[in-house]
Write the structure tokens for this entry.
Amino acid sequence: MFKKHILTTPEVSSLQRQKLRAAFWFLAPMLLVLFCVAAWPLLRSIYFSFTNTSLTNLYGGEWVGFKNYLTWKTFSSGRTIYSGTLADPAWWNAVWNTVRFAVVSVSLETIIGLMVALVLNAEFKGRGLVRAAILIPWAIPTIVSAKMWAWMFNDQFGIINDMLLSVGLIDHKIAWTANIDTAMLSVLIVDIWKTTPFMALLCLAGLQMIPRDMYESAKIDGVHPIKVFFQVTLPLVKPALMVAVIFRTLDALRMFDLVYVLTPNSKATKTMSIISRENLIEFDKFAYGSAQSTLLFAIIALFVALYIWLGKLDLSGEKS
Amino acid sequence: MKNPWKFINPSLLSISIVASAINFAQAAEVVLVSGAVGKDIEVLKEVVKPWEKSTGNKLTVFPMPASTTDQFGQYRLWLAAGNADIDVYQTDVIWAPQLANNFVDLTPYTRDIVDQHFPSIIESQTTNGKLIALPIFTDAPALFYRKDLLKKYNKTVPNTWEELTETAKYIQTKEREAGNPDMWGFVWQGNAYEGLTCDALEWVKSFGGGQIVEADGTISINNPKAVEALKMAKSWIGDISPAGVLAYQEEDARGVWQTGNAVFMRNWPYAYALGNSEESAIKDKFGAAPLPSGTSPNKSAATLGGWNVAVSKYSKHKEASISLVKYLASEEVQKYRALHSSNLPTIISLYDDKDIKEQQPIIAQWKDVFLHAVPRPSAPTKIKYNEVSSKFFSAVHSTLAGSGSAEENLELLEYELETLKGNNW
């Protein structure tokens, strides 16, 4: 009776309004910061992509429409020539490289990460120490680890060739980063080495949410451990896993630093971010590079939308 | 600069203001950015001491990665943003036309000294009548060879690329049989970056295949001689040069060379002084000669390199910066650099200097190499040079790595360059 009274009086809804207003003012600084560091640069580079801006003339660009994306010219002979990013083979090569990199690295990182998490979730002596130790690759700045691996991959004095040679797995020194066939493999190895701990950590958090009694009852029922994994663990850890995968996919699609240090300019590993930076800064085609980064943004958005739709992913957390 | 007078008794204020103003004008802190190759940075810090003493200014050196491509990207970004933190930029010989708008015109300050330098180098740093940067040393690559190994196997310094290939192969095989499995015939710079443009331009030019884009702007790269040159280089990979050479820059090649694991190396003269340093495995065991020639004799080609210093238009200490730039380009400093890092002077008279002749014999020898020096096509391609160079080194890199033949890649390159050129560069 008392409760009902409170819920229906107009004073309370005004209190609620007040609360909402307060909440807005508490959020306002953050929204402002987000607008300045995220929305404004994004809108600005989208705007640039429709102009002919160059780095030497940043503020004097003129509107050119979709010229940086796709434009064509038909000659009197009837031959049509397309130009613009969407007709640029270098761009599509980069898209293909990035997507390939993202799919392979994220799948492997998820599988290995989950395996590591399962091990870490078990009770054993010195678990805390191992948990801390496994995070080290993730804690090293990418530039540093990329440089470190570049030396390890060096064909003449790199330790990887030395080790493989001495166990007899290879019979001659391999130029890991220089060779077109192994360049992508090297990048993948370093990325997986670096990011698996992050995946493992997110998976571990998910695993620890699973109530222990589920396993106990499965044990009492005599269910095979492999069946327990697929019937109990996997479905319950899935929401956490899906979020981890989406984080990593976004990360992998905008991949830049590792390639920039490890295999700069190699056609086999050029990603979308690398190629757009190259146009933005090195070639003084600022607008063209902006068009490429806008496309990169669109591709990432598309991937996320597709992923959420396919996985019926519940990002709001309401259902769980 | 803090305001020291803020904390002083008000009665002394006016004096302090004057004092601090004088102080400000006299002691500026000049910031210089430079790539860190070999011992460049150490030498720079050592060499400015007299200047710091006489002017009361202070120099802060901001080291950058060794790759010129990386440096350029960063500099262009800073300059586009009007960065006032950096006063002096050490610039590559090819950058002048691309960065001209961001640097102070040095013409009025250098009328008395420009005549000391090689006219061609001053010309390369002049855009639309403005002197963009002052040269501090010039560069033309050399063929470094192991005196001891050539003598051991009774071979001579190769005059042609063909001889080089044979000699390298021969010594490499013999040395490996003698128990040095890490020995390679020839190391150079094959990474996909500006350095490969230099290396490949030398092959093509020495084979009589032109210089990618000629001085009048015609695209000449797709020709049988250029194809022949690239095929020769392709044949080296995995044979006399390690496959990893496709990821080597200057310092990687020097790493293999200086540990004694290569018979020949193509590199810039800076490697001469470093190779003779105390900790070097090949101290006093090597010599340097002009690069081999292509098919017809006496047609050696060396890509013109070199470094310059330019004053940023956005600098707050222009006066001090200009004085620094003039000092760095002076005879005194160039001589010091020649003696300590075997950098080639741009001041003509230094080539006859007694001390230099005695201590760095390579330099006197190099006066002739400049006769064969070939500029990269940065002048005719103007602001598009970087893209031209990138397309060229990518095509060469693909060829060397075996993705497409030399014919296919050069044909494609020609088409790409035509498209890039449009009606005009």
In short: Chain A touches chain B at residues 55-56, 58, 83, 154-157, 173-175, 177-180, 263-267, 277-278, 281-285 (CB under 8 Å). The CA atoms of residues 94 and 271 of chain A lie 5 Å apart. DSSP finds 13 helices and two strands in chain A.
